[in-house]
Write a structure and sequence with these properties.
EC 2.1.2.2; 6 helices; globular
């Protein structure tokens, strides 16, 4: 096995997807090593989980910076202090500048609670229910400057039930997120996929992209 890719995770709250990645990375054979968890909110509950796991944590408070550019520079510096090679956004509620996204192009991924390109942005579950769709889900993608845009790495779908509320649908999607995000990060960290502009290609035959979980 080659060297594990040093990965930083960005959170703003409890970081349940961060926890799923950390648990997957406990396996020495997992191709990513979680070296730091960074939050823009000092009160983020996920920081305590990371600390209990023996993972370094950093707080880069967006309120302490005069501009988005200054915040992103501080965030970039925090990641580089820990030798981060890959970045995984896990409920990180900040829109990043083009400069930051460019610095981490093809090395930063995000998970979004919809089957992209449907329902970009917020309130995805409410919008899905309003449209009376029968399948909903989540997507992992490489980050681009446009919100919730970029090449799709993996998707998981769940049924939408007639009795669903936004809360019950969100819970079902979150379970799928916890399963798919570790698999998507492993694809990236292991070099199993290549990024060519806005397209992904498998490094070896037999892998269909985006990876899909019913």
């Amino acid at each position: 096995m080659g060297a594990r890719r040093k990965t930083g995770i960005l959170i703003s709250g409890r970081g349940s997807n961060m926890q799923a990645l950390v648990k997957a990375a406990r396996d020495p054979a997992y191709p990513a090593e979680i070296v730091v968890v960074v939050s823009n909110r000092p009160s983020a509950a996920g920081l305590a989980f990371a600390q209990a796991e023996g993972i370094a944590t950093e707080v880069v408070d967006h309120k302490a910076h005069a501009s988005r550019e200054a915040f992103d520079d501080a965030l970039d510096a925090a990641l580089k202090r820990h030798g981060v090679e890959l970045v995984a956004c896990a409920g990180f509620m900040r829109i990043m500048t083009e400069g930051f996204v460019g610095r981490w192009r093809d090395r930063m991924i995000n998970i979004h609670p919809s089957l992209l390109p449907a329902y970009k942005g917020l309130h995805t579950h409410e919008r899905a229910l309003a449209d009376k769709i029968t399948r909903h889900g989540c997507s992992v993608h490489f980050v681009r400057s446009d919100v919730d845009d970029g090449p799709l790495i993996a998707q998981a779908s769940v049924p939408v039930l007639r009795a669903d509320t936004p809360e019950t649908l969100a819970a079902r999607v979150l379970d799928a997120e916890h399963k798919i995000y570790p698999r998507a990060l492993a694809l990236v960290a292991s070099g199993a996929i290549r990024v060519d502009g806005e397209k992904l290609t498998p490094a070896k035959s037999g892998l269909r992209l985006p990876l899909t979980i019913p």
